Amino acid sequence: MRTLGQIIDEAVKTQYGDSTKPHPLSVMEKQSDRQKYSRELLVQIKNAGLPEPTQEYRFHPVRLWRLDFAYPEKKIAIEVDGGGWGRPVVCNRCHQTVMRYVNGRSYPVREGGRHHTAKGSEADNEKKNALAEMGWRVVTYNPSHIKDGSALQNLRKVLGEP
User: Fold this and answer.
1) Strands 54-57, 67-71: parallel, antiparallel or unpaired by DSSP?
2) What DSSP element (H or E) covers 7?
3) Domain ranges in the chain?
4) What is the DSSP string of 17-42?
5) Residue 89, SS3?
6) Which of 21, 43, 49, 99 holds its CA 20 to 30 A away from the CA of 150?
7) Cα dist from 75 to 9, 57, 72, 147, whole Å
8) Nearest Cα to 81, choosing from 64, 63, 69?
9) How many Cβ atoms from other residues are within 10 Å of residue 27's Cβ?
10) Higher-pLDDT residue of 75, 99
11) CA distance linking residue 162 with residue 159, whole number of Å
């Protein structure tokens, strides 16, 4: 006689396939979006021949705030908000990323992410306001800006590069 767990496992395998193989729609990431897209933006900057920014720059004399990237001499701050989109929700049973379907396209369901909380948003505003008080210009990019190249185009203009 099969247990309820075995029956559920078989049903999941029938619907989603072998859970040991990656699901074709899976967006399981071993690193955070912010880390992944920060690295991608840095590669784009280097490949475009733009000056290399300082990474993880501590700009404030008292607070421990850091910028993802900075051009301190020009007081230009670059923030990558990939982490704000949260982490993919993974099914406990089949270990596949839970997907949502909108207008015929699939998107991973996400949870968490500090930018989605009131406290996280307040902290971001406090940091950006401090930057403004100190005369910094802040540009913020999300993964779609980096993937489609618009972050690099915008950064060229902000830096005054052709």
Assistant:
1) antiparallel
2) helix 4-16
3) 4-159
4) --TTSPPTT----SS-HHHHHHHHHH
5) coil
6) 99
7) 55, 11, 5, 25
8) 69
9) 15
10) 75
11) 9
